[in-house]
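Hi everyone,

Forwarding the result from last night's run.
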Amino acid sequence: MKTIACRCEDVTLHDLDDAIARGHRDLESLKRYTGFGTGWCQGKGCVALCAAHLARAGGSAALPITPRPPVHPLRLADLAGLASIASDDEQSGRPPR
């Protein structure tokens, strides 16, 4: 049975166990090896679960992990697609919505 630990990056409990067995016994190292906490939610949905799993395995689950912001900062309008709509309106001569 596949048990998901991080939905954003599709990290399973098996992936965590494998990483721990390979010597990743602290939360930051485990995150870097498996990729949990690096998706859209930036760990809000998975860090606590992964830390608890690591602690049960005898590792160091000290929080917080190092956050990794997006490489290129984006405006909210760009993410929502509103910037392209405004650009299209401007080019076609339509009034802003």
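The chain has a mean pLDDT of 83.

Cheers,
N.
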